[in-house]
Amino acid sequence: MNLAQKLGFPENSKLLIIHADDAGLSHSENMATIQSLEKGIVNSYSIMVPCPWFYEIAEFAKKNPKFDYGIHLTLTCEWDNYKFGPVLPISEVPSLVDDRGHFYKKREELRKNASAEDVEKELQAQIEKAIKSGLKPTHIDSHMYSVGVKPEFFKIYKDLGKKYNLPVLINEQLMKWVGLNPDQNIEDGDFIVDRTYVGEFKDFETGELANFYSRVLENLKYGLNLILIHPAFDDNEMKGVTVNHPNFGSEWRQIDFDFFINQENKLKLRENNIELVTWNDVGNVKRTL
After folding, report:
1. Given a cut of 80, is residue 157 above it in pLDDT?
2. Which residues have a Cβ under 8 Å from the Cβ of 205 and sit 6 or more positions away?
3. Does some domain include residue 3?
């Protein structure tokens, strides 16, 4: 039996998780994520524990357990003027921060400077902080897929999934995106998401981002599919967070929000025989194997 059959669907079903990254990043991100879950077709999200607005989204998650959420393990901070760093004291994980005590902006800086020991301590601390805050995550994923910058970090990521009995996001496209060889780093028994869809900057630049999402829904293939979005509002807060960063900036995030809250796009799911599933569904299947 394949995953679809184990979930009670026909063998050749189009399974889809519509997932909102970066909850906790800002108030704007939180409010757009919540509305996307309550009024739109987003059915999963993940939370950035080190960010200042973590506490707001954590309270929402605890009060609304019907919505599927995971931990968005964070090792980088890409913004110019909006900074955050480890949940652990810097003295305990010194290789993870720049000279101002913030996470590195770029994955390459993380790859060059971070030690595996510090990565493991910090990622576990983020999960522990979430759990101690009363959260019950359904999965683990990674901000900017930074866990893939080194094979040692990727192994830590997978091992944390085993330790906490949670599925982790493993996908060949994302691995290649950050320069990690799937053939050398996927092992027997790893749970793999068949296809992951993330908008590209060229789609945003040409005004085609919404059309990209439409094409994904209209051409979805059999198996487990994941659409990764970053809903937020194009307001002053997000403009400040994402200044000088149009790639996944505030305007981009508003487009994400608008598309996936549009009820006409909900009809595309039915028209294309798409079945929405969650990470919790996936985890329950894995735990019965």
Report:
1. yes
2. none
3. no
